[in-house]
């Protein structure tokens, strides 16, 4: 059945006569990601920026997934193998296990350098009441640790995704043509409603 599609030539699918839904989903997402990466390299602004911002939601989810997995003593290799292909990026392998809830050192050593680091910085600005407004100023790790005590990883993920969604919405409002702006406005409002529910 898949032989007549783009997935029919996929080595994984052609070797598997009996495959699971999860394996098929992952193969399809990997193919989609390779096509999106091709579009990004072949496009110019605003399309290239739009595609990158679209992937940021998946990247945020992967970052939180890795942090959760590492806290549960799972290996980085195992986590990377099961992470969402749409949220993969090279710097993901730099995330290391943290002691307890030491998000401060994780932030200062890793998160700021990620493609989605700007969203984590804005989240910390909100949490620390603007103590990190200057990009060049190091935030006191003790101050961050105290401010982060009240947040679980899921709460952090939701807050960071909210910041991403807001910025993506603003980008669409200012940078996209009318038809694209209207369609994306509806889609992003729907995504926001899902997060709220």
Descriptive report:
With 197 residues, the protein is an all-alpha fold. It is 64% helix and 0% strand. It has helices at residues 11-15, 21-42, 47-71, 76-82, 103-109, 117-127, 141-148, 153-175, 178-196.
State the secondary-structure class: mainly alpha
Task: Please report the distance between the alpha carbons of the first and last residues.
Answer: 38 Å
Which residue ranges are poorly predicted, with pLDDT under 50 across at least 5 consecutive positions? none
**Largest sheet data:** none
| Structural domains: how many | 2
Radius of gyration: 19 Å
Task: Provide the β-strand percentage band.
Answer: under 5%
Oligomeric state? single chain
Q: Based on CA inertia axes, which overall geometry fits? A: globular
User: Helix coverage percent of residues?
Assistant: 55-70%
**What's the rounded overall pLDDT mean?**
82
Give the beta-strand count: 0
Number of helices: 9
| SSE ordering | HHHHHHHHH
Layout: helices, strands, pairs:
Layout: H1 11-15, H2 21-42, H3 47-71, H4 76-82, H5 103-109, H6 117-127, H7 141-148, H8 153-175, H9 178-196
Helix pairs in contact: 2-3, 3-8, 5-7, 6-8, 8-9
